[in-house]
Amino acid sequence: MRKRRGRSKSLETLISRSGVEEKVGDGNVGKEGKRFFACYLLVSLSPRHKGHTYIGFTVNPRRRIRQHNGEIVSGAWRTKKKRPWEMVLCIYGFPSNVSALQVLAVIQLMEHNVIKRRATTDLIVVFFEKPVANNKV
């Protein structure tokens, strides 16, 4: 059986205003000591998967894009087949991970509804087009 990897030993300990200690990895803390939470949009650069997108959440965008592109092992198996990826949008400034994940859920729901609407529109166009007259000789 494979040995599980633990957290790195270079974790910093922060004490919040309430006095609770909070462990934070490298790249998670901004200039003011606040945590960094972001939603991001990836676009596939592969000619075979042109136009494919992926939406996600991260606390460290540089590390996350490297995971998606396979430079760092672990963490991004869903996007493995459509590599390489480019991060075209990164929304940050959320006060907590909950608010960032809520925005992510809304974006994903909107994307799903747009895809569903396009598919429905295409089906309606196919069903209601005028049939081509048969030219029998």
Automatic annotation (TrEMBL):
Residues 35-118 form the GIY-YIG domain. CDD domains: GIY-YIG_SLX1. GO terms for cellular component: Slx1-Slx4 complex. Pfam families: GIY-YIG. Signal peptide: none annotated. InterPro entries: GIY-YIG_endonuc, SLX1_endonuclease. It comes from the Eukaryota. GO terms for biological process: double-strand break repair via homologous recombination. Keywords: Membrane, Transmembrane, Transmembrane helix. GO terms for molecular function: 5'-flap endonuclease activity; crossover junction DNA endonuclease activity. The chain crosses the membrane at residues 87-110. The keyword Iron does not apply. The keyword Transmembrane helix applies. This is GIY-YIG domain-containing protein. It comes from Carya illinoinensis (Pecan).
